[in-house]
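question for whoever is on the cluster today: can someone run the full assembly for these? two chains, 865 residues total. i dont have access anymore since they changed the login thing
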Amino acid sequence: MRLLRIVPDDTKFDFMRFRRISFPVSAMLSIVAIMLYFFHGLNFGIDFIGGTLIEVQTKASPSDLAKMRSTIGSLELGDFQLQQFGAPDDVLIRISEQSGGDEAQQAAVQKVRDALGDDVTYRRVEVVGPSVSTELLAYGTIGLVLAIVAILIYLWFRFEWQFALGAMIANVHDLVLTVGFMSLTHIDFDLTSIAALLTILGYSLNDTVVIYDRIREMLRRYKRMPMPELLNASVNATLSRSIVTHVTVAMSLLALLLFGGQAIHSFTATMMFGVVLVGTYTSVFIASPILIYLGVGAGRAGGAEEPGAPPTAPAAAPVSSRPATPPQRARARRS
Amino acid sequence: MLFFTRWKAASILITALVVCAFALPNFFPENVVKNWPSWAQRHIVLGLDLQGGSHLLLEVDTSAVRKEQLQSIDDDVLKVLRQARIPFTGRAVHGSSVEVHITHDTDIDIALSKLRELSQPLSGYLGATGQRSIDVTESGGTISLTPTEPSITGRVRQAVDQSIEIIQRRVNELGLVEPTIQREGANRILVQVPGLQDPSRLKEILGKTAKLDFRMVDLSMSPEQAEQAHPADSEILDGETPGQKYLIEKRVLVSGADLVDAQPGFDPRNNDPVVNFRFNSTGARKFAEATQANVGKPFAIVLDNKVISAPVIREPILGGSGQISGNFTVQSANDLAILLRAGALPAPLTIIEERTVGPGLGQDSINAGEHAAYAGAALVIIFMFLTYGLFGLFANIAVAVNVAMIFGVLSFLNATLTLPGIAGIVLTVGIAVDSNVLIYERIREEVRAGRSAINAIDAGFSRALATILDSNITTFIAAAVLFYIGTGPVRGFAVTLGIGIITTLFTAFTLTRLIVAYWVRLWRPRVVPI
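^ ran it for u. tokens below:
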């Protein structure tokens, strides 16, 4: 049977040429993301800033949001939000953290229950007091930093330091852009978002490591090949695998996005952005060329360039001592 | 790479089979599984977000524990100094120590040695730690007694253990099904009750300390006069109705610790709900003495520092049983009886986190998870088959076994499956395919470079496996960190992701290779159908 070939064999696309564009673009996007974080802010969930989340199903369908808003407003519980959530009779009520410590949170929930009475059934109630929310925020941040450090150390063992550093820069850049995305879309930022960020980190590194592995192999094999050529060859060689894997992960995430329901919606949307869009881009256009700037392959032609030097010519076919492709074609036809 | 001895092949297959078999109990109804041997009954536990229920995180008030410790040291100091007939002044609790000033400087040494006896050696898990429970120091005639940190931590730990026991008793009395009650960290308790929709009653029952005391009402002055006069041995307590105040002696005649039973009932005279109680022999004796000495005077029943009833003693109560009446409803009388039977909490508990999921949402989540899993699996299987043909089929088999093994490991660990956990499994399917893709793409390359079919396959495997290990370990580190910092549903995700990576490595290194090796042996291909 004729097999699906998304990426033709022997692609020779010159990825490295784009580094003069991709680095500045990435730097700019990162700055935009950071500014979004500071000025637009993240939509922190109750996990991190405390408060109460109540999901109710009203007997009336669609729900009378205005009436509920005035009922809850009259309770004087401070800032609160009401929105439709999924089905037309599903309402999500979010009340900000009450002053007065943990007991005050409980008192607020009781007031809401009394006020809404029999008009609603409670699908979900979540109350996070100030002590727990500060902890979760601390743990979340520490967790991210810890993961980055742990992976850095692991990569340092397996590869040289330039690889470890390059991978880290590329992947922290992934996280920064993803946080920018989350700020822009105002997606809920709670504990599952930290889970998404950590998974994006792990998985994106997965990708980078595959390419680095190939680069390391080629560095050993082709001692005289100029760096941009070598990097291009590595990326081209792993391109087919990258595309196929990204398609399969994208399909898993798509299934989760379409069928997984509202509860994990923010999680899957974040993962989709991080893994598929950003991860692919950075592994190819940032993580690989950055090795040149970090001094890998210094001494080869094209390695550790001086700033201002013109980019080297597009890659030709790698110098190879292997025999030319034999008459036997790789594509098999079942006769 | 493609050579498997019969033993190796057999052991791989058997391992895979055994691990998958552990997943079986999840698919049979409970009454069937009950009859299997206990080691075969391990199954996955559905998280609260999938089966519905209540999750409450309670914190023990450590400052209350400290206060009580200081109070008891204060009482002990009084006893010791009086017995030794050492005059002193200014015995009081200051901050985190008890201070007392010894009147005569000549007494200081004796006082120090007597007070030092109050400090006891602390023991840890391995025996005596060499530390003591109280630091006794002296300066300028004033002796300070400060509880040491290890003794405070020890007390907090004891308080938490006691609280867990009492919570267990209270929860059992409420008739709740299979609650999980466990310690979290130094001073927190996690209570999880599957199936509980409205935790209000549970929260009320857990929120009350339920310390019951019987004390005499101080009739020497009115509560208003006491607010000015500040008598040393009495205190002002509130009554049930707002604004009602009583002046009650601090001395406790009988305490709730001596109660042996408490039952809700009805007052025969007016059918009001009441709580009938009974003391043990010590309590009965103390009660008899107290009532005999105070006929005609009112005594107060104090619950959590509030006076719930202050009846006049009409005759001595020698039988050790009595009745508490007040503003009770049937439910509140029942609740108080439960609290008295279970015992008083050593320190107040605060609810710092609550997550309750209704059954509707739980079922929706399960359905959503199932649909997503099937859809994701279907897409991936079709895609792999289209891209790699026969080898795609091999990869699909390996991934199917992979997922079965994940369920098997989860069952074996009695792990909790949450909605993010299901997402983790779906994600693992996407990632597991990657290891096979790495191998196959390598094989394609080797073929293009001119190797024969079998050599290409062999080279493909050997070159790819190192990369597979490296790349999966980074995701595993992320999952490990997430497990450590996460709670509840997020932890469920970390667990399935982590287990998924391990099983992926297993199947990539063994199962896929095995299938391809046998196919090569049977078909002896000249051309790789990739």
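summary bc i know u wont read the tokens: The two ends of chain B are 18 Å apart (CA to CA). The longest helix of chain B spans residues 359-412.
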